[in-house]
Automatic annotation (TrEMBL):
Gene3D superfamilies given in the database record: Exo-inulinase, domain 1, Glycosyl hydrolase domain, family 43
Subcellular locations according to the entry: Vacuole
Signal peptide, first to last residue: 1-22
Name used for this protein in its record: Beta-fructofuranosidase, insoluble isoenzyme CWINV1-like
Gene that encodes the chain: LOC111481203
Primary location class: other
CDD domains: GH32_Fruct1-like (cd18624)
Organism: Cucurbita maxima
Domain Glycosyl hydrolase family 32 N-terminal: 33-348
Example GO molecular function: beta-fructofuranosidase activity
Top-level taxonomic group: Eukaryota
Length: 563
C-alpha cells in the first residue's frame, strides 16, 4: 500500500484541483458525471460521433429544476469525459411541438450527413415524429439545426394511441436500401415497437406488423434496436445485419430499461426473441437501480457501442427546486455480448480512468466474519473502486429457495443488516465515520442442487441518509457467475450522490442515488465488510480518488478555444 495522506490534506489538494462548488452548499452535485450547470435534465438524446466530436443532446428545461418546456440541449466532447455546453439545438417553436421537443435519435445517412428524428408533443400532448438536419454539416460542432418543412413526418393515425407514440430510434438500412426505425407505443394496452420504412428519410410508411410487442407490459418508451457481435470485442454499427450477430431490443417501462436478445431477419423485418420481457429468471435489465430512458450509439472511431442513461433523483421535488437542478447522465458504458451469448456486459468507458489519481491497493487480504475494514487514503466521496472476492466453504451456503425469483424482493428481505452464511459481504460507500450513514453494496451466495450456486448482488439504501423524505429503495440483481471457479468482482463509481456499481465485470449493474447528511465531501468514508459467518478473501482491492471532469459552457472553457 502507498503511504496514506491524512484525509484533511487530501481534501485540500482535492479542493485546489476541483474548486469549491461541491464543498459549499451543494454536497450532492457530482464531480465527474455529465450534468448541465442548472435546471432539469432527463433522457439522453441523439448521441453520435461526428467528424472527431462526440455529441450529446438531452431533454432539458431551460427555466426550472422540474420537468417542462422540454428542449434539446446540446453538449460536445472530444473524450466523453470533459464536456462543453453549446446553445440549445432544438426548441419548441411549432404547433406540433407546443408542449415540447421530446426524445429522439441521430442517424448518419449514406451521404455522411447526420439527421435527427424526434417527437413533438402538441398542446394536447398528442405525439408526432419530426426531422431536423444541421444547417452546416461541415461544422463538426453541428451548432445549428433546421426543422424539416415536411414536419410532422409521422402522425398517430389508425390504432395508434396519440398520447403514447414517441422516441424514434436511430435508423438502420435494410438490404432493400430502405431505412427502418421503430417508435415506442402502446396499442390495446400492450407495449409495442412500431416499425416504419423510408427511402428518403422524409416519407415513412408503417410496417404491417410491429417489430415486437408484449402483452406483459404497457407503454414502451425510448426503444433501442441494434446488433451485437457474438464473441467479438468490437461494437457494431446499427446497420450491420449479417455475420455472427444477435440483435438487442431495449424498451423502457416500469422505471427500468429492459432488454431481450434475438435474431432479426431484415427481409421480413421479423425479430425472433430468445426470452421475453418480464419472464421469471430471464428479466434482463441494463441496470437494476436508478437508470432509465437510455440510448446507445456506435462510436466509429473506437469501434464500440456506447450507452448513455438518465440517472434520476430520488429526493423530493422541493429538494430539486432548492438544489436548482435535477437529473444526471450515467458514465457512458460500452456494450458487448457476454461470451455465454445469453446477456450483455456493460462497462464504464476506458476514458473515465484518466480521472483516476491517488491510489490505494491491497492484495490477498482476509475479510473475516463480522469484520469491517476502512479503505484509507482516498477521497471517498469521489472515487473509483475495484474489488474482487474469493470464496471458500461454499458448501455451507444457505439453500436457494425456488420461490426466490425476484432479486430486488430478495434483497429487500435480506438487507445488509441481516446476517447470512456466505455474505452479506461487500462495500459500505458514502459512509459516515460511525457508520450511522452507509450505503451497502454487497453480495450473498446461495446453494442450488448439484453444487450450483446463485450470486445475489444488492444495493441497500435504507441507511444511506439521516434525512427524511427520500426514496431509499433496496435494489437487487442476480449475477450469472460461478463462484467455485471465478472471483466475484465489484466496481463502484462513487460521486457524491451517485453510486454506479458493476458486478461480475458488468454482468449486473445497479445505480443508486443517495443524499447523506454526514458522509459528505471529506467526511465520507469507504469500508469493506463481511457479515456472513464464513470468512471471505479479498484477492485484490484498488481504489482511486477521482479528479473532477471539466463540464462547462463554451465561454468558460479553460483550454484554448475551439472553432
Ligand atoms: C415554461 O416556460 C414558461 C415561459 O417561460 C414559464 O412561464 C413556465 O413556468 C415554464 N414551465 C416550467 C414547468 O418550467
Ligand atoms: C411515400 O412512400 C410510399 C411507399 O413507398 C409511396 O407509395 C408514396 O407515394 C410516397 N409518398 C410520397 C408523398 O412520396
Ligand atoms: C401473450 O403473448 C404470448 C406470445 O407472446 C401468447 O403466447 C399468450 O397467449 C398471450 N397471452 C394473452 C393473455 O394474450
Ligand atoms: C414469476 O414467478 C412468480 C412466483 O413463482 C409468479 O407469481 C409470477 O406470476 C411469475 N411471473 C411470470 C411473469 O411468469
Ligand atoms: C464464445 O466462445 C466461447 C469460447 O470459445 C464458447 O464457449 C462460447 O460458446 C461462444 N459463445 C457463443 C455465443 O457462441
Ligand atoms: C451477525 O454476524 C456478525 C459476524 O458474524 C456477528 O458479530 C453478529 O453478532 C451477528 N449479529 C446477529 C444479530 O446475529
Ligand atoms: C421457500 O419459501 C416459501 C415461501 O416463503 C416457503 O413457504 C417454503 O417453506 C420455502 N422452502 C424451503 C425449502 O425453505
Ligand atoms: C454487521 O453486523 C453487525 C453486528 O450485528 C451490525 O452492527 C452491522 O450493522 C452489520 N453490518 C451491516 C452492513 O449491516
Amino acid at each position: 500500500m502507498s503511504k496514506p495522506l491524512t484525509r484533511a490534506v487530501i481534501f485540500c489538494i482535492w479542493l485546489a484541483f476541483n474548486g469549491v462548488d461541491a464543498a459549499s452548499n451543494q454536497p450532492y452535485r457530482t464531480g465527474f458525471h455529465f450534468q448541465p450547470p442548472k435546471n432539469w435534465m432527463n433522457d439522453p438524446n441523439g448521441p453520435m460521433y461526428y467528424k472527431g466530436v462526440y455529441h450529446l443532446f438531452y431533454q432539458y428545461n431551460p427555466y426550472s429544476a422540474i420537468w417542462g418546456n422540454i428542449t434539446w440541449a446540446h453538449s460536445i466532447s472530444y473524450d466523453l469525459v470533459d464536456w462543453i455546453h453549446l446553445e440549445h439545438a432544438i426548441s419548441p417553436t411549432e404547433p406540433y411541438e407546443a408542449n415540447g421537443c421530446w426524445s429522439g435519435s441521430a442517424t448518419v445517412l449514406v451521404d455522411g450527413k447526420p439527421s435527427i428524428l424526434y417527437t413533438g408533443a402538441n398542446s394536447k400532448n398528442q405525439q408526432f415524429q419530426n426531422l431536423a438536419v444541421p444547417k452546416n454539416p461541415s461544422d463538426p460542432l453541428l451548432k445549428e439545426w433546421i426543422k424539416s418543412p415536411h414536419n410532422p413526418l409521422i402522425s398517430p393515425v389508425d390504432d395508434i394511441d396519440p398520447l403514447n407514440f414517441r422516441d424514434p430510434t436511430t435508423a438502420w438500412l435494410g438490404p432493400d436500401r430502405l431505412w427502418r426505425i421503430i417508435v415506442g407505443g402502446e396499442i390495446g394496452g400492450q407495449g409495442v415497437a412500431i416499425l416504419y420504412r423510408s427511402e428518403d428519410f422524409v416519407n415513412w410508411t408503417r410496417g404491417k406488423t410491429p417489430l415486437h410487442t408484449s402483452n406483459k407490459t404497457g407503454m414502451w418508451e425510448c426503444p433501442d434496436f441494434y446488433p451485437v457481435s457474438i464473441n467479438g470485442s468490437n461494437g457494431l454499427d446499427t446497420s450491420v445485419l449479417a455475420g455472427l450477430i444477435k440483435h438487442v431490443l431495449k424498451a423502457s417501462f416500469n422505471n427500468n430499461d429492459h432488454y431481450v436478445l434475438g435474431r432479426y431477419t431484415p427481409e421480413m423485418d421479423t425479430f425472433s426473441v430468445e426470452t421475453n420481457f418480464l419472464s421469471n429468471g430471464s428479466d434482463m435489465r441494463y441496470d437494476y437501480g436508478k437508470f432509465y430512458a437510455s440510448k446507445s450509439f456506435y462510436d466509429s472511431d473506437k469501434k464500440r457501442r456506447i450507452l448513455w442513461g438518465w440517472i434520476l433523483e430520488s429526493d423530493s421535488e422541493a429538494d430539486d427546486i432548492s438544489k436548482g437542478w435535477s437529473g444526471l447522465q450515467s458514465i457512458p458504458r460500452s456494450i458487448l455480448l457476454d461470451e455465454s451469448g445469453k446477456q450483455l456486459l456493460l462497462w464504464p468507458i476506458k476514458e473515465i480512468e484518466k480521472l483516476r489519481t491517488k491510489q490505494v491497493s491491497f492484495d490477498d487480504m482476509d475479510l473475516k466474519s463480522g469484520s469491517v475494514f476502512e479503505v484509507p487514503g482516498i477521497m471517498a466521496a469521489q472515487a473509483d473502486i475495484e474489488v474482487s472476492f474469493r470464496l471458500s466453504g461454499l458448501k455451507e451456503a444457505e439453500e436457494m429457495n425456488t420461490s426466490w425469483v425476484d432479486p430486488e424482493l430478495l434483497c429487500k428481505e435480506k438487507k445488509a443488516s441481516m446476517n447470512g452464511t456466505i455474505g452479506p459481504f461487500g462495500l459500505l460507500v458514502l459512509a459516515s465515520k460511525d457508520l450511522e450513514e452507509q450505503t451497502a453494496v454487497y453480495f450473498r451466495v446461495f446453494r442450488k442442487q448439484y453444487e450450483k450456486y446463485v450470486v445475489l448482488m444488492c444495493s441497500d439504501q435504507s441507511r444511506s441518509s439521516l434525512k427524511e423524505g427520500l426514496e431509499k429503495t433496496t435494489y437487487g440483481a442476480f449475477v450469472d457467475i460461478d463462484p467455485v471457479h471465478e472471483t466475484i468482482s465489484l466496481r463502484s463509481l462513487i460521486d457524491h450522490s451517485i453510486v454506479e456499481s458493476f458486478g461480475g465485470n458488468g454482468k449486473a449493474c445497479i445505480t443508486a442515488r443517495v443524499y447523506p447528511k454526514l458522509a459528505i465531501n471529506q467526511d465520507a468514508h469507504l469500508y469493506a465488510f463481511n457479515n456472513g459467518t464464513m470468512d471471505v478473501r479479498i484477492s485484490k482491492l484498488s481504489g482511486w480518488s477521482m479528479k473532477r471532469a471539466q463540464i462547462v459552457p463554451i465561454q468558460k472553457r479553460r483550454k484554448p478555444s475551439i472553432t
